[in-house]
Amino acid sequence: MKRTYLGEFEEIVLLTVVVLETSAYGVAITHEIIEQTGRSVRLNQVHAALQRLEEKGMVHSRMGEATAERGGRRKRLFTITAYGEQTLLEIQSVRTQLLSLLPRPLKPSLSI
Amino acid sequence: MSKHSKPEQPQPPYLADKLLKWFCAPHLLEELQGDLHEEYYYQLERMGKKRANWHYFREVIGFIRPFAIKRKTTPPTLPSTLPLQLDMFKNYLTIALRTLWRNKGYAAINSVGLSVAFCISIFLFLTAYLQLTFDSFHEEKDRIYQAYFFSNDPERASRSGGMPMPLAPTLKAEFEEVEAAARVMTLRKSSVAYQDKRMDKEVYMTDPDFLNMFSFPLLKGNKETAFSDLSSILISESLAQTLFGNDEPLGKVVQIGNEGKQKGYIVSGVLADAPYNSSIRYDAFIRIDNHPNFTHDQANWGSNSHKVFIKIAPQAKQATLENKLKLFSQKYFSSNIEVLQKKGAKPDKLGDIFALRLQPLTKVHFDTEISNGPPIAIVYALMGIAFFILLIACINFINLSVARSFTRAREVGVRKTLGALKSQLFVQIWSESTLLCFIGFLVGVLLAYQLLPEFNTMFNAQIKLAHIWEPGFIGLIVGVFFMVTLLAGGYPALLMAKFNPVEVLKGKISLKRPGFLRNSLIVMQFVMSSLLASCTLIALQQLDYLRTRPLGFVKEQVISIPVGNQENGRQVLKRMRAKLATDPTVLAVTGSGINLGRGKDRVTSRAVIAFTHKGQQIQTDWLLVDYDYLKTLQIPLQEGREFDPAYPSDSLDRIIISASMAKAMGGQELVGSYLRNEADSAGTKYQIIGVVPDFHLYNLSNGVIPITMHLSNTESIHYIFVRVASQNLKQSLDKLQHAWKEVAPQSEFIGTFLDENVNEWYREEEMLSQIFSLASGVAILLSCVGLFAMALLVTEQRTKEIGIRKVLGAGVPSLILLLSKDFIKLVLIALCMALPLAWFMMKQWLNEYPYRIEISLWIFVAVALAALLITFLTIGFQSMKAAFMNPVKSLRSE
Predict the structure, then answer these.
(1) Which residue, B231, B405, B763, B783, has most beta carbons within 10 Å?
(2) What distance in Å separates the CA atoms of residue B577 and residue B571, rounded to the nearest whole number?
(3) Does residue B796 contact residue B788 with C-beta atoms inside 8 Å?
(4) Shortest CA distance to B550 belongs to which of B660, B696, B693?
(5) ipTM of this predicted structure
(6) Rounded CA gap, A61 and B36, in Å?
(7) What are the helix (H) ranges across B421-568?
(8) Which segment of the chain is annotated as a signal peptide (chain A) (predicted)?
């Protein structure tokens, strides 16, 4: 099966797109991530990630409507694609599976 | 969300925005800038303007990442407006090729015309180039001069290049500016022998300075010592090859000199062969001290036997030196000045009656008096004709393009409405014509390459296409090519680019109005071609007149045989007489010192002497003849008798003179009287035994020359003339050749008929008139091609009109007249301008000939009729086609 690679940051952005549903665009996504994770994220990083995600086919975009604080410019609204959802599920299942295989306690063994 | 809509609302930093616009890909700009602005206002509220601005900056700079930056292959940008972008140019080329392919006929007419014009002008330019670069290969050419005497004779100021023996050494000794001086002397061809090989070659006599002056490369031998010995000989590469093959030539001994007077010379060097454009064309050089009369003439300032070249110091000036030479002339040539003064000579504007002057080496070739090159006007005429022909081809090109531009107006209109700029249209149409020009040029060069051998044999020229690669010539060709494309392609392109699209698409651009420019161009074309045609006709007539004019002797059926230097002419003549005595087809045999006309040995010579008779100076040609000279050449006797072996003293001091000599002596009944040089106290008295009518020893352009014939027992006979009676001349020639082997075994038989020899006198005129004929033929042809194409276009454009006229009852003749009358009118105007001009020009030219034709009116009538006829035929064909066309067909279309 073809493996899909998704960077950690990309994964977060993708998840945020899902969370924001119909109003996922650059600024909103950035603010949501800052709010939810506490990381200091910048617009340009988010845009770069969104660009890559779109190239990989994880998200789909269309131009939305304009608002005043944007000086009459339109926003690009992102929605997740079925493939993106599938990928997220796969990542989750891999993690769950791996976590279930962990010996307890979750400590590295020091014995040689 | 919108809380900031007041006008004093702070804006994101302008510079940052500008930066973003600059680097950001256009299709991303809107969303990115939107997001950035939104973020800015968000931050503005939270942390104030300063920090928000700072934040904005950092964000913008953060966007300098691959995905956001403009890349070259980003989705389609707007087409550039620059006309000369490379891919656009490719596009123009494709379009041009397609258009040309669609209009094959038009393209063919144009490129054929251009290629013929280019081919001819390449030939003419090459010929002119070769002439203009004569002697320019010498490295120090700017410092080399040929000395000549100027004498302001009251009859005619003249110049002469023959110098006395002591001149060169004296010049070198008396003037420090003169770095080197070399006497250059050639007699008739000398016999060169090595072992059993013998041949006649051009052996020059010169001074050791020769090698320091001229740049003929010395291939073998030492420049310093090559001429140090009196018996040294320098030979040319090709002579070395013929004499010694692949053997080492240095140190070999060759015999130079005519029979009985041979001397051995040691080869001390091998010179490269002289290039074609060299005035000095040699086979070998020996020291001038070897000349038989050297010791006698060494201090004789009165002899004029050779050319003198001098090289002046780099800082010296010609004018200064010539000024100093005035004193020099007064010192050494006082007697010449006195004689001239007695005759009534006045000083010229430089204050000289007789002076030694200098001609720069590069001009020597065109100085018809001191060298035998063509007058420089001829070279310019050739170049002028080349330009004429190119111009005619250009005019064709322009006319056709302009005429066709009306048919193409719609295309231009559509392109313009679709947004094509004027500059783009110009480049597009111009590239089309440049392509045509280029094709024409390529075909022309190929044609020239193919026809070069024919051209060379036809005009006896020596041009080589290799000269094309010389920088001067490349410059000329590139210049001409650009001129043609600019002139022929540029104007129509400009015209079409200027069309107003609205008017074009409404159909308001007139299709029929010929335009002043087109008419004047056609007129110009015909002025040039009829000018050339009438000049050529007159020149041919004059040439024919010179050729057929009686020369005073009968040149038909006489064979002239050069004796060569290997045999004694007197002995050969004696044996020849004995051998042919019984042959019934041989009418007479004689010998002479000079040839008549120019035979295969290419030698012409002349001996002139001056008598002071009854206080008057008489110049006469001094002609050595043998018994039967008058009989062989069928020169009648006016008075007296011919030389006769029965009178022994005939070969001592008896002479026969020509009528103009008799006139110069101022008398009737001269037979029996004496001619003697009164100035010469010991002078022999010559008794006149006969008078003959004038005859021409030389080209008719020399006019009538007084001739004095004498016999001799000792002077060399160089030519043998044989008059044959046979109808089969070829057979006679073969018979003579056979006999020659026995009477003169050492000498090659190069006999020719006198009438052929005489024609050779006019070779230059003939070559020129042939070039003129070719040029005028091409010019007329090109003009006709242009006219034909023009007629084609006009009838095409007027098809509908013709149809309507036909339907309304116009007859075929009136239609043909309608179509051709415009062109006929133009040709008539052209003729009115060209013919008087031709008359004037040829009048000037003919004035140079003492024997000349009167320009007859019928030549102009003939040229005019021919021009009109050709025009009518060219256009008539098209008009006829149009007139006979079924009007239903032409009216139904569209």
Answers:
(1) B783
(2) 10
(3) no
(4) B696
(5) 0.84
(6) 18
(7) 422-459, 471-484, 491-497, 501-506, 516-548
(8) none
Q: Compare all CA atoms of chain A with the CA of B62 and give the residue at the minimum distance.
A: A44
Residue numbers in A near B4 (CB within 8 A): 68-69
Residue keyed to tokens 């891999």: A94
B730-738 LR contacts (CB < 8 Å, sep 24+): B732/B559, B732/B585, B733/B559, B735/B583, B735/B585, B736/B559, B736/B561
Convert B516-538 to b/e letters by CB count within 10 Å (16 or more is b).
Answer: eebbebbbbbbbbbbbbbbbbbb
The token pair at B133 is: 């670069």
Higher pLDDT, B716 or A4: B716
- The residue assigned the tokens 């064979």 is B559
Q: Do the Cβ atoms of A30 and B58 come within 8 Å? A: no
What pTM was estimated for this model as a whole? 0.66
Contact check, Cβ <8 Å, B62/A45: yes
Identify the CA nearest to B189 among candidates B131, B246, B115, B256.
B256
**Of B2, B33, B39, Cβ closest to residue A67:** B2
Q: Which residues of B touch A32 (CB under 8 A)?
A: none
Domains and CATH numbers, chain A: 8-90 (1.10.10.10)
Q: Give the model confidence (pLDDT) of B704-721 as tens digits.
A: 888 999 998 888 888 999
| pLDDT, tens only, B807-863 | 888 888 888 888 888 888 989 999 999 999 999 999 998 888 888 888 888 999 999
List the one residue out of B384, B746, B348 whose CA is nearest residue B532: B384
Q: What does the radius of gyration of chain B's CA atoms come to, in whole angstroms? A: 40
Half-sphere exposure of B884 (CA within 13 A, CB side): 5
Burial of B820-842, coded b for 16+ CB within 10 Å and e otherwise, reads beebeebbebbbeebbeebbeeb
Output the DSSP codes for A27-73: HHHHHHHHHHH-----HHHHHHHHHHHHHHTSEEEEEEEE-GGGTT-
Decide if A43 and B42 are in contact by the 8 Å CB cutoff: no
Nearest to B475 by CA among B125, B111, B139, B134: B125
